[in-house]
Write a structure and sequence with these properties.
By secondary structure, the protein is mainly beta. The chain folds into three domains: 121 residues, Sandwich (Immunoglobulin-like), CATH 2.60.40.10; 87 residues, Immunoglobulin-like, CATH 2.60.40.10; 44 residues, no CATH class. It contains no helices and 23 strands. The protein has a six-stranded antiparallel beta sheet with strand order 1-2-5-4-7-9, with no helix packed on it. Strands 12, 15, 18 and 19 form a four-stranded mixed beta sheet that branches. It is flat.
Length: 263
């Protein structure tokens, strides 16, 4: 194999850590196999204790030498255990997405020492509703089926989106944070623009976001030929008013860009 190739080795032995060791093929490889550490803890919810049961918890760590991770599900009292971890700094994540009324700030940094157990406590809080609509500009016609994504440092990326319903409405939940909403899977007849993203500040009270108004576009079609009028296959075509939109000509030299502002 080429000397610069990176090789990953999956390692596990009873009583030792579970890890993936990273090395380059052109360097000597010595694995110092560390004893396993453990993270134990409890997820609590003072207002509704039952919601802390059957919640996913994960811990992960990444360095140049190794990566390691563990997952667990809380029991009826919210207890969990993450075992088989080599010593290092871990990010502990509560896997509750933006569809849950009860949430925890999703990342907690925990130091793990090999051969010992580290205890943590994670708390669920009542989240703030964030709602709004996606509609056509001018007509106010609802646009269903658009994915609305909540982005931010305190949002668990594993489940941070929802889809607009038949009335163009969406509902997400978030803990207080400065974040943004972004639209994905927008029907192709609408023009991509900065209106597809919007900053949002979430506080303690419900946030009603102004409507996302989508502008209709019109498609552009054509054929690519050379200076002799002969069709050109696989040529790249870019729309100058929207450089992010491009197309490759087909075997028949045909192309299309969709959409651009309708006139």
């Amino acid at each position: 194999m080429p000397p610069e190739t990176r090789v990953d080795a999956w390692l596990w032995a009873e009583g030792y850590a579970k890890l993936v060791s990273h090395y380059r093929a052109d360097k000597p490889w010595v694995i110092r196999y560390p004893p396993a550490g453990t993270i134990t803890g409890r997820l609590i919810c003072e207002d509704e204790p039952a919601v802390a049961a059957q919640v996913g918890i994960s811990a992960s760590s990444w360095t140049d030498q190794f990566s390691a991770a563990a997952e667990a599900i809380t029991d009826a009292q919210g207890h969990f255990e993450l075992s088989g971890l080599p010593a290092g700094q871990y990010t502990v994540t509560v896997k509750l997405g933006t569809q849950s009324l009860w949430q925890a700030y999703p990342k907690k940094e925990v130091e793990v020492t090999g051969g010992t157990t580290t205890e943590v406590e994670l708390a669920l809080q009542r989240a703030t509703p964030v709602s709004g609509r996606v509609v056509e500009e001018g007509t106010g016609t609802p646009v269903p089926g658009v994915v609305v994504l909540l982005e931010g440092p305190n949002v668990w990326s594993g489940q941070n989106s929802t889809t607009t319903d038949e009335d163009g409405r969406y509902l997400l939940y978030a803990l207080p944070v400065k974040t943004s909403l972004r639209l994905y899977e927008v029907p192709e007849q609408y023009v991509p623009s900065t209106y597809f993203s919007r900053p949002v500040t979430v506080g303690d009270f419900e946030v009603v976001v102004p409507d996302f108004e989508l502008k209709h576009g019109a498609s552009i079609h054509g054929i690519v030929v050379d200076d002799q009028g002969r069709p050109v296959k696989w040529a790249e075509v870019t729309c100058s008013k929207a450089p992010s939109l491009s197309s490759n000509s087909t075997r028949k030299s045909q192309w299309s860009c969709m959409p651009r502002p309708a006139r």
